[in-house]
Amino acid sequence: MSNYFEILRAGINTTFQDNGRKNLYHIGVPFSGAMDQRNFRLANSIAGNKPHFPVIEFAYQGPLIKYIGDEINFVITGDVIFKIIKGDKEIQGNCYENYSIKDGDEIDIISTNKSVYGYLAINGEFDLKFQWGSCSTNTKAMIGSNNGEKFKSKQRFEIKKINSNRIGKKMNYINSKIEKIRVIKGTNFDYFSDQGKKIFFEKEFTVSKLTDRMGMRLEGPKIENVVNTNIRSEGLIKGVIQVPADGNPIIMLSDHGTIGGYPKIGVVISADYDRLVQLSPGSKIKFQEINLSDAETLFKLYEMETQNLISQI
Question: Is the pTM above the cut of 0.85?
Answer without folding.
Answer: yes
